[in-house]
């Protein structure tokens, strides 16, 4: 069908302001740069995808600027003239020309799925096998600010229905960081009044080494922290396995988990009790679904992670999280809530601490052209 042929690939850079600065172990930001990708078909369908990284190239080596160059100069020529439903063939052609660059590839792959689904007048999750759920719980991520600041923000989110919080660590010396997190965890437990009502997780963003982790993480478990995310560098999977065996609470893999091969290795070593899925870091919906299937076969629950996506990338991750049976450990799909302005004509629906799957074809979202124009980088 000629209607399915791709006849346009457009990219544009946006800078979307945040409601408050968001800090990681190594860096921070007060606006999120976003690469918006639009793929048009001869039949008039327009698919959306998003290239975004959490705070810049420190995480995975890519930035929105590098993504734009790679897509415009190398990927778009391989996509033009191909059928939008030939995702496997297009991905192989791209992989033959472009190594790595998984964030850039994810933006294009998601846009292909959106355009194809819109051409069929079905939601993206239909292309992924249908839904296992229609909403996912959302963990609210807090920054590396002092305990009093973080507790104040957490109290407001408790009132809004959030019951799970993730604290960033690694910006301070370990003893100071541990004292800060223990104070926050104990305060939230006291306010909630019932164990498990306000869960606290921590994310080290691969900042600590093996001995620091083994020395300090048990204190967090004793204070009521329920999960530790990626304490050690991505390549140190054996360290991660040792830490996972030593702790009475789950360890979640993020930086160590980007490809299905990574998932197989982590599962074989029992290096993590939970997998953090991100369509962005893994190159798109299909690879992420494969990781979720490996996790399910190994009995490892999955969590819907975030790269602080706009509503476009968040909607894509939501379709994946709702389609993958293994995603039973909630999500962090809070990106749009951290952004000061709305990019969609109808916002994604957050209620009761959950993010709900939108209806309609494709990703189920429509961009607000005025908002896109307002935040386009000049």
In short:
By secondary structure, the protein is an alpha/beta fold. The chain has helices at 64-79, 87-97, 102-120, 124-127, 147-159, 174-192, 210-222, 237-246, 260-269, 285-298, 311-323, 335-338, 369-375; strands at residues 6-23, 28-41, 46-51, 135-137, 140-142, 164-168, 199-203, 227-229, 251-253, 274-277, 302-304, 349-351, 354-356. Strand 12 and strand 13 form a beta hairpin.
Features:
Enolase-like, domain 1; 2 domains; 7-stranded parallel β-sheet; 13 strands
How much β-strand is present in the residues? 15-25%
Give the CATH level 1 class of the largest domain: Alpha Beta
List unreliable stretches of 5+ residues: 192-196
* CATH superfamily label of the largest domain: Enolase-like C-terminal domain
**Main sheet?**
7 strands, parallel
- The appropriate CATH architecture of the largest domain is Alpha-Beta Barrel
How many domain modules?
2
Computed structural class = alpha/beta
- What is the count of DSSP helices, taking H or I runs of 4+ residues? 13
Helix content: 40-55%
- Strand tally is 13
Strand order of the largest sheet: 5-6-7-8-9-10-11
The topology string of helices and strands comes to EEEHHHHEEHEHEHEHEHEHEHHEEH
In angstroms, what is the radius of gyration?
A: 20 Å
Average the pLDDT over all residues and give the rounded result. 95
CATH topology of the largest domain: TIM Barrel
Q: What sort of overall outline do the alpha carbons produce when their principal axes are compared? A: globular
Distance between the termini: 38 Å
